[in-house]
């Protein structure tokens, strides 16, 4: 996965996403038969996956705080909700391949979520920051004082794709930006962390 130095995720955030992916793989191995049924159901299985992972994480990773459908993107963009939010700081967007879509259609949906989370990084450019007492003051490159808030302008976000078919797995692999986890029962889990 190629990243500019400025775009490198925080190692604690990456560790959190790796924990999530490991737990998702354990869930997939434990639920292989159910996943096969859900994969072949009409209407897709992404919402079911979201709820299942939420319940699994609550039961099997008690030190991890998980929230569903949180308003968690930077700067309170109320129109965007995260599928899951890990420890109140890392957004997770899930994509689950369906049996009725082509491999290319699945890859396109994954790309749309990548664009969605990449938009999180861009949202900081249009913010008008106001100084509040207690905010730090730093010097810019010209030596002038500038205000900085104590908050990050970027929301760390991960796209996690669950591919079932050989074609779906190949299509996501072709995107060439994801890490892959293969020991997830009938699934391959692909993930990328931004921010």
Number of domains: 1
What is the mean pLDDT? 77
- Helix/strand-derived category reads alpha+beta
In which range does the helix fraction lie? 25-40%
Count of separate DSSP helical elements = 5
Q: Could you tell me the radius of gyration in angstroms?
A: 18 Å
**Overall 3D form:** globular
Separation, N- and C-terminal Cα atoms: 14 Å
Uncertain regions: pLDDT < 50 for 5+ in a row? 1-7, 121-140, 143-152
Main sheet strand line-up: 1-2-3-6-8-7
Strand content: 15-25%
**Describe the biggest sheet?**
6 strands, mixed
| Count of β-strands | 8
Order of helical and strand elements: HHHEEEHEEEHEE
Task: Explain this structure.
With 195 residues, the chain is an alpha+beta fold. The protein has one domain. It has 5 helices and 8 strands, in the order H-H-H-E-E-E-H-E-E-E-H-E-E. It has helices spanning 11-30, 32-39, 46-60, 103-122, 166-175; strands spanning 66-70, 82-86, 90-96, 136-139, 145-148, 157-163, 179-184, 187-194. The strands form 2 sheets. Strands 1-2-3-6-8-7 form a 6-stranded mixed β-sheet, with helices on both faces. The protein has a two-stranded antiparallel sheet with strand order 4-5. Helix 4 runs parallel beside helix 5 (166-175). It is globular.
């Amino acid at each position: 996965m190629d990243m500019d130095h400025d775009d490198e995720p925080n190692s604690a955030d990456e560790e959190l996403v790796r924990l999530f992916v490991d737990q998702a793989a354990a869930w997939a191995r434990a639920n292989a038969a159910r996943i096969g049924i859900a994969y072949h159901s009409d209407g897709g299985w992404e919402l079911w996956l979201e709820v299942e992972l939420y319940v699994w994480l609550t039961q099997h990773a008690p030190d991890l705080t998980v929230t569903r459908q949180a308003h968690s993107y930077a700067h309170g963009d109320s129109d965007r909700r995260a599928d899951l939010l890990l420890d109140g700081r890392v957004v997770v967007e899930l994509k689950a391949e369906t049996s009725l879509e082509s491999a290319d259609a699945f890859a396109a949906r994954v790309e749309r979520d990548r664009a969605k989370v990449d938009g999180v990084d861009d949202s900081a450019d249009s913010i008008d920051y106001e100084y509040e007492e207690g905010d730090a003051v730093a010097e810019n490159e010209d030596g002038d004082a500038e205000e900085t808030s104590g908050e990050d302008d970027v929301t760390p976000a991960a796209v996690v794709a669950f591919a079932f078919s050989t074609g779906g797995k190949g299509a996501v692999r072709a995107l060439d930006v994801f890490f892959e986890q293969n020991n997830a029962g009938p699934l391959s889990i692909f993930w990328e962390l931004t921010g």
